[in-house]
Amino acid sequence: MITCTITYEIDPDQVSAFEVYAKAWIHLVNTMGGTHHGYFLPHEGANDRAWAMFSFPSLAAYEDYRSQMTNDPACQRAYAHARETGCIRRYDRTFTRPVLSGASPEALGL
Predict the structure, then answer these.
(1) For residues 42 and 48, is the Cβ–Cβ distance under 8 A?
(2) Cβ contacts of residue 104 below 8 Å, gap of 6+?
(3) What is the per-residue pLDDT across 72-100, written as a single tens digit (0 to 9) for each?
(4) What b/e readout covers 66-79, taking b as 16+ CB neighbours within 10 angstroms?
(5) In the chain, where are the structural domains located?
(6) What is d(CA 9, CA 66) in angstroms, rounded to the nearest whole number?
(7) CA–CA dist 107, 75 (Å, integer)
(8) Cross-referenced Pfam families, in alphabetical order (predicted)?
(9) Residues 25 and 36: beta-carbon distance below 8 Å
């Protein structure tokens, strides 16, 4: 499994518009074979940062999704919304692999 974490710099005056964008992408990622873990919007602290996390079974599955989204009308509408509202100033993607199960320190030889 591969997980993509996106760190956004958003316009603090456009948080509502960003939330619309976020809800669209949660739906789109889930319908295109991924598992969306949610968007995390500003509440306390910095008012211009937001995060999203979603996973795909493999990097190849993520690349298939990226290929599909370039021609998908719903994806293009979501991108257009972000451009038109200016809710996203910039973003960075990071790919990680999750560790989802734990073990006792004894079982780990600690």
Answers:
(1) yes
(2) none
(3) 999 999 999 999 999 999 999 999 998 98
(4) eeebeeeeebeebe
(5) 2-96
(6) 22
(7) 46
(8) NIPSNAP
(9) yes
